[in-house]
Write a sequence for this structure.
């Protein structure tokens, strides 16, 4: 499997932009699934604030997922009695958000037949 650290591309490496169609399909699938999760957080915020969808959209439209998670977490903590998932759930959401951002914003290439993603901040190769 891959690593979330810089990798070197040797002079003899075969490099091409893009990836195989099955990898593109999995990238799309991951982004669509994360969008569903993000929408669920929007709905939770609207419900907890008792907002209809028109006003809820105004409130959450420009909010990134990390902020939505923080808002839901704080609101659940403020309930009487407090209701909240375990710390492991919040950690998993943070990791999922970070991975989604990498998947969505990376430049996808193929190096020596393997898919790889690169950006100015990090690189990853299978």
């Amino acid at each position: 499997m891959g690593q979330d650290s810089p990798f070197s591309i040797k002079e003899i490496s075969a490099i091409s932009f893009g990836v195989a169609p099955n990898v593109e399909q999995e990238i799309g699938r991951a982004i669509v699934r994360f969008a569903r999760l993000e929408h669920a957080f929007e709905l939770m915020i609207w419900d907890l604030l008792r907002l209809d969808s028109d006003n809820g959209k105004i409130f959450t439209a420009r909010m990134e997922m990390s902020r939505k998670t923080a808002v839901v977490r704080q609101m659940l903590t403020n309930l009487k009695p407090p209701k909240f998932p375990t710390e492991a759930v919040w950690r998993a959401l943070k990791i999922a958000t970070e991975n989604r951002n990498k998947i969505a914003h990376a430049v996808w290439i193929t190096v020596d037949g393997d898919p790889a993603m690169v950006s100015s901040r990090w690189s990853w190769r299978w």
Observations:
- The mean pLDDT is 86.
- Residues 22-105 form one domain.
